[in-house]
Specification:
Blueprint (H helix, E strand, L loop, with lengths): L1 H6 L2 H9 L6 H7 L3 H9 L9
């Protein structure tokens, strides 16, 4: 998070601070979430539905 925070413009840093989330590696093995698709959705600033 610190790396991301360091490269964002000030206006986006505030929104990152307000909407922090964490993704653990354990979740990938249990849910089968494709991390490449998650990264793409983050880059494109798109919503993504994850399995429960």
């Amino acid at each position: 998070m610190a790396k991301i925070h360091g490269v964002l413009p000030l206006s986006l840093r505030r929104s990152l601070d307000d909407a922090t989330f964490y993704i653990g590696r354990d979740a990938y093995a249990e849910t089968g979430v494709d991390l490449a698709r998650v990264r793409l959705a983050l880059r494109e600033q798109r919503k993504m539905r994850l399995p429960a």
